[in-house]
Amino acid sequence: MGIKDEMQAKAQQAKEKLQSKQGEAKQRGQSEQERLRQSADEARQQGQRSFDDIQDDMDDRR
């Protein structure tokens, strides 16, 4: 195998490794985005429950 072939093989390996790392980063990003979305949903639900509780208390006082 010549030097050119070796360099092409190494370049191909580096390219594949980079693509693998990019895929992993994309997966992590999607997982983090989903985690944040769930957290926001939970906070929104908690806020709604608190609001509903306050409304109920106000209705009870009438």
Characterize the structure shown.
The protein has 62 residues and is mainly alpha-helical. The protein is 95% helix and 0% strand. The protein is built from one helix and no strands. The radius of gyration is 27 Å and the shape is rod-shaped. The model has no long low-confidence stretch (mean pLDDT 92).
Sheet with the most strands, sense and barrel status: none
Rough shape? rod-shaped
SSE pattern? H
Distance from first to last alpha carbon: 90 Å
Roughly what is the average pLDDT, rounded to an integer? 92
Number of strands: 0
- Total count of helical runs of at least 4 residues: 1
Structural class: mainly alpha
- Approximate strand percentage: under 5%
Q: Determine Rg (CA atoms, Å).
A: 27 Å
Low-pLDDT runs: none
Helix residue percentage: over 70%
